[in-house]
Amino acid sequence: MSHTITLTIPISTPPPLAPLPPPRTNILRTHQIAKELSALEKSLEDKKAAIERQKSKVQKLEECVQKEKESTREEEEKRELEKSGVPKRFKHPEEWNYPAPSHTPHPLYITTANQYGHIPPSIHEMPDQFHGLSDKFSKHLNQAGPYRNTALNY
Question: How far, CA to CA in Å, does 51 sit from each of 32, 39, 108, 140, 152?
Fold first, then answer.
C-alpha cells in the first residue's frame, strides 16, 4: 500500500509595478552650472587656505611651547647648580650610560687603567664642587662670526 500525499501551495502573483516617473530634465543651464562650479572651487580654495593658516598657527604655538620647555629646563638646571654647586649629572653617576666593550682584549695587553676604566664611578668619587667656564666668548663668536682674513695674497 502506498500512500501519496499531495500538497497544494497557493502561489500569489506580485502586484503590477507602478510606472516609473519620467526622467528629470536638467533645470540649470550650462552657464549656471559653470558659475556654480567656480563658486564651489573658490570655496574649496578658501577652506584650504584657512586650513593652512591654522596649521601655521599650530606650528608657531608648538615652537613657542618647545622654546618654553627648553628655557624652563635651562632655568631649572641653573637653579639646581646654584643650590648645590654641582650639576645634576654629577649627583647621579649610576644613571650614566657606559657603552659595552666592543670586544674582549687579549689578556696579555690588559692594563690596570683598562681594568679601572670598566668600573663605574660611585657617588663618593664624584666632585662636590663645579666651576664651569663662561660661554661669553662663544656667544659673541656665534653672533659675530669667525675671523675673516682681509689681507692681500702675495
Answer: 29, 18, 68, 41, 55
